[in-house]
Amino acid sequence: MTHLPSTSRNGMAEATEAVEIRPGLHWIGALDPGLRTFDIILRTANGTTYNSYLVRGSDGVAVIDTVKAEFADDFFARLESVARYDEIKVIVLNHLEPDHTGALPELMRRAPQARLHISTRAPAMLKALLKPSEEHPLEYQAVDTGDEVSLGDRTLRFLHTPFLHWPDTQCTYLVEEATLFSGDVFGCHHCDSRMFNEQCGDFRFAFDYYYAHIMRPFKTHVMDALKLIEPLPLQIIAPTHGPILRDRPRRYLTRYRELSTSTFAERIGNEEPTLVVFYMSSYGNTARMAESIRTGAEEAGARVSLYDLEGGEIQPFVDLVESADALAFGSPTINGDAVKPIWDLLSSLAVIELKGKLGAAFGSYGWTGEAVRMIEDRMRGLKMRVPVAGLRIKLIPTDEELAECRDFGRALASAIVSGEKGRVIDFADLG
Ligand SMILES: Cc1cc2nc3c(=O)[nH]c(=O)nc-3n(C[C@H](O)[C@H](O)[C@H](O)COP(=O)(O)O)c2cc1C
Questions:
Q1: Residues with CB under 6 A from ligand 1
Q2: Residue 184 counted as domain residue
Q3: Would you say which domain of life the source belongs to (predicted)?
């Protein structure tokens, strides 16, 4: 029988009974319909859920993930509706983020015999979380892909899926029920007390939004995880946030694959080296530099796009950055800094993988010219490679200086082609 947690008129969850997914397999999480901002960075128009699961086997019970600390009472009430604490043999933590480990210390106190199962990347983090001492040592089992724990007639098998979205992330597969406890993978912030995907409202937007903000920086790790998950028989995906995916669960794997190869460049690869030049300019000086850089880079075989940040919006620019092989940012120095739209774009790039992408900075200045160095520092901070030394030109560029800009563009294009790593090219020598 399925018990659905009811909601009161103000939308808050009231009932605290477990939801049966299958006999001996229950959702024992918590609903948080009032939440509007998650982890500072994510908006949610109808809250979220913290999903925790209980698996009963012939030889013991496993609890998979817990909930945020404020929701511990709901979690324990739901757990108690289907199991006793002394039956719990295994606690699995698919990653150690606080919204899934908030109730862990209290669960460990109530079920001291239960053995923690965490990924091989998690021990240091677990110690930082639980602060063990000589008096209270920490015991756990670190598990890797293929390791299993038996609950008698049911088996949990682990899949190492790091960086989705914490370094210690793993997924746990309940073999006999073809059920994947996927942690935050395939999750979303969507609170619907009906819990199952075919019964909930349309959450496709929330699913894609969650991916875009949480998983997108880790696309290569998503693809690695899919290689482990796709061959599995799959009847249910049980993530830690949002609906339980039991109706055609494979659609969500397909969607992750699409989203992880969603840019044109990722699908077919850039046919020629691509450089995107973003700039701002009040009197046209930095703009003239940008145009000459384009000319030089094109002469060296790059396909160049030139964008004045004044005329665009951040989101499409972020997509452009993701597809480009190299980026150049041009800013005049204004009051000892680069201009705000440059920083706005640079501060919006954390959602994509930038490691190893090429970057360069240029700009006109009047007397101190700090902007170029500041942009370079930021790009290095984002783990981009900066292979060509930044180019500053005092006030209005002369013909000779515009020729320098062309050399700069040519050097940047050459760096894309040669794949130079980290070496600073003196563009003036490339003539
Ligand atoms: C309000 C204002 C503040 C400026 N502050 C600086 C500064 O702190 N350091 C500097 O080197 N140049 C400064 N400049 C000079 C500009 O960087 C210079 O005029 C540059 O050539 C403008 O390039 P653009 O035409 O691409 O905007 C300032 C200019 C303005 C209008």
A1: 281-286, 332-336, 364-369, 395
A2: yes
A3: Bacteria
